[in-house]
Amino acid sequence: MKSFVLAIALISPFALSGCVISVGGDDGHYSSDWEDREYNNRKHVAQLEKGMTYESVVRKMGVADFSEMHEQSDHAYRVLFYRTQRTMDDGVTTKDECTPLVFRDGVLSGWGDAAYQQL
């Protein structure tokens, strides 16, 4: 019995040396969770179109990192911030790491810093 265990112990490293562990996705995108989240958000932002409803955007993008509500000239503006780029390696998401999506009366009117600064 001891010789059998010894034989298995000696043969195992050679038998297992051909094993490969895949850690990346099917699209060749290797990254951590926060990188995946940013990549996904950038991908979804690239598919946005003016005139989309608030509900359809949230259904596509998910929960925003930050949300604001403004009222100007009898219009309600809602701004959702989604993290799209990391600026500091501190583990905290800030608005400068996010892309703002601006909704006027429940309809997407623009996104990015230029759209946000017009408020």
TrEMBL record:
Which InterPro entries is this protein grouped with? BamE-like (IPR037873), DUF3192 (IPR021534)
Please name the Gene3D superfamilies in this protein's record: 3.30.1450.10
A Pfam family recorded for this sequence: DUF3192
Per UniProt, which keywords does this protein have?
Signal
The domain of life is Bacteria
Where does the secretion signal sit in this chain?
Answer: 1-17
- What is the name of the protein in this document? DUF3192 domain-containing protein
